[in-house]
Design a protein that fits this description.
mainly alpha; Hypothetical protein af1432; 10 helices; disordered N terminus
Length: about 190
């Protein structure tokens, strides 16, 4: 059997499966803002949104979706992801990672610039992340307090991904789904 990582991919050939197990271990003990939901459920929902709602079944995209918060929220670094999942996945995860050393006022603009320059699949994962965070806002103990920020993130994700809509059906599906969700939240 080949060793997982760049030398031949994960054992069994399912990159997303290895990414799910890795993310589950790294996010172990972390909870969502509601203080009850395991954090790992968020990354699984993001991957499921990419696959089932947006129609993208690319193994690298699903792996990146499962791993997208590791650098930002755990002790995992780029090299850990590179060694285990390869450059494409590691680069997507890095693009989805905010630079927490920047002041918040500059952090979001730098993040948006990095996402805009990245592979279109990064923007697809960002759309799924925004989608899940908006859906999950009903479980947030802060209620509607954080809703305007989450709505803003959704609109930014749609703007960034707009360039991909003509070339990628998955992006068109994603934008349509996220706009539909925003409409539902606007009428509630």
């Amino acid at each position: 059997m080949k060793k997982p990582g760049r030398s031949g991919g994960p054992v069994g050939g399912a990159l997303w499966r290895d990414a799910a197990a890795f993310a589950a271990r790294k996010h172990s003990g972390q909870l969502r803002r509601d203080g009850r939901t395991p954090y790992f459920s968020h990354v699984v929902r993001v991957a499921m949104t990419v696959s089932e709602t947006f129609g993208c079944h690319d193994e690298e995209v699903l792996a990146a979706a499962l791993l997208h918060d590791l650098i930002e929220d755990t002790t995992t670094d780029y090299e850990d992801i590179l060694d285990r999942f390869g450059r494409s996945v590691a680069d997507m995860v890095a693009a989805l990672t905010k630079d927490m050393s920047l002041p918040e006022s500059r952090r979001e603009a730098a993040y948006d610039r990095r996402i805009a320059r990245a592979d279109w699949r990064v923007r697809l994962v960002k759309l799924a992340d925004a989608y899940d965070n908006l859906v999950d806002s009903v479980n947030d103990p802060r209620g509607t307090q954080d809703l305007p920020r989450r709505v803003d993130v959704c609109h930014r994700a749609i703007r960034l991904a707009g360039v991909d809509a003509t070339r990628h059906k998955q992006t068109r599906n994603a934008i349509k789904a996220l706009r539909g969700l925003l409409e539902r939240f606007a009428t509630e």
